[in-house]
Design brief:
Layout lengths: L7 H7 L1 H9 L3 E2 L4 E2 L8 H6 L3 E5 L1 H18 L3 E5 H6 L9 E6 L5 H12 L3 E6 L5 H5 L2 E2 L14 H21 L4 H12 L1 H9 L2 H11 L4 E6 L3 H16 L2 E6 L16 E5 L6 H13 L3 E7 L11 E5 L7 H19 L18
Parallel strand pairs: 3-4, 3-5, 5-6, 6-7, 8-9, 8-10, 10-11, 11-12
Antiparallel strand pairs: 1-2
Helix pairs in contact: 2-8, 2-10, 4-8, 4-12, 10-14, 11-14, 12-14
The protein binds 5-amino-5-deoxy-1-O-phosphono-D-mannitol.
Length: 366
């Protein structure tokens, strides 16, 4: 049932080229620069008039939400707030009938997320779901939604569900952009054509596995780990840190790279691995300065770089290459090496990768 892999998690990591493809199948028409999301059709007017979009989720799904914020604000120009479902429901949040709430959940059973949905519903908002498990509770609570087609995810650490969620959020961002006319059809042709090639790029990113095994060997005895990223690389850093802590029990933190100097820099010494998303995009030069700050304090830098990069390679202790892609698609690709890194470290430490201690696949308590 593990398809020849040692663990479900590894199988699910390798399934991503397919699960990403399945999550966009039938929904994009790159040649025409068009998208179709059946579940949302009825809500076109609502999207056109929405003052803002509120995303509620927990854990990894919340990280996907942060990527969604970048994409929706960038392309659809609607303000987005991303909230931990648990915090949202215990405040007295200001919600109106013009708000659209998007709830993201792999299992569709997360108690905190369900409670947040109920609260927003009472206040008259339109609730949309992004779920993976068909027929679960959340799709039944929401007005409409878009399923991720990741297939069953058995490993407690979410991998393919995360990239499927990000894929669907990318589709929603482009879809709202199409409705609102904030992106030209020509640009959508370009974006959708590149989105269609993402599964191939993910396949290429998976080829770094052997190198990642060697890096894991060097990091496996670390007690702490810092993950840094800027822009949409920041949620990727958060997700990388969560993956490492939940399956390997190494303490890890994800930080916006520029925030390092406001505190965490005090932790850096020659025993501190710092994993940096340093791909060639708008924040490249700034990230390079952050790497210099880490190196000046003798931290161990593991950089995720764009294929062919030389500048970061000269500074970092280890570099992992990923194929070049538009900034919009970076999270889908840069997440892959971080998943593999956590996986191998956890295996080397003898951890129960698929069933980490104290964790359950769906968290049905509040
Ligand atoms: O099923 P959900 O997406 O609602 O679950 C949310 C979190 O419990 C989940 O993402 C959790 O953080 C995972 N163990 C992360 O790998």
């Amino acid at each position: 049932e593990k398809g020849g892999y040692d663990h479900f998690m590894l199988k699910e990591i390798y399934e991503q080229p397919r699960s990403i493809k399945d999550s966009m199948r039938g929904r994009i028409y790159p040649n025409e620069g068009k998208l179709q999301l059946g579940g949302l059709k009825q809500y076109e007017e609502k999207f056109k008039n929405a003052d803002r979009i509120i995303i509620v989720a927990c854990g990894t799904s919340w990280h996907a939400g942060l990527v969604g914020e970048y994409l929706i604000e960038e392309f659809a120009r609607v303000p987005v707030e991303v909230e931990y479902a648990s915090e949202f429901r215990y405040r007295n949040p200001i919600i109106s009938e013009k708000d659209i709430v998007i709830a993201i959940s792999q299992s569709g059973e997360t108690a905190d997320t369900m409670a947040a949905i109920e609260l927003a519903k009472e206040k008259g908002a339109t609730i949309l779901g992004i779920c993976n498990v068909v027929g679960s509770s959340i799709p039944r609570l929401t007005h409409a939604g878009v399923y991720t087609h990741a297939g069953p995810e058995i490993g407690v650490a979410s991998t393919k569900a995360f990239t499927a969620q990000v894929t669907v959020l990318t589709l929603i961002a482009f879809y709202v952009a199409q409705i609102k006319g904030t992106v030209t059809t020509g640009k959508l042709v370009e974006l959708l054509t590149e989105l269609e090639s993402v599964p191939t790029l993910v396949e290429k990113a998976l080829k770094a596995n052997d190198l990642i095994v060697k890096i894991a060997e060097e990091l496996k005895d670390s007690r702490n780990c810092l993950f840094l990223g800027r822009g949409s690389g920041f949620p990727v850093a958060l997700e990388g840190a969560l993956k490492l802590k939940e399956i390997s029990y190494i303490h890890a933190e994800g930080y916006p790279a520029a925030e390092m100097k406001h505190g965490p820099i005090a932790l850096i010494d020659n025993e501190m691995p710092v994993i940096v998303i340093a791909t060639k995009n708008s924040s490249y030069e700034k990230v390079i300065s952050n790497i210099q700050e880490v190196k000046a304090r003798k931290g161990i830098v593991i950089a995720i770089v764009t294929e062919g990069d030389t500048e970061v390679k000269n500074m970092a202790d280890y570099t992992i290459e990923i194929p070049h892609a538009d900034e919009a698609f970076l999270p889908l690709i840069a997440t892959i090496p971080l998943q593999l890194l956590s996986y191998h470290i956890a295996v080397m430490r003898g951890c129960n990768v698929d069933q980490p201690r104290n964790l359950a696949k769906s968290v049905t308590v509040e």
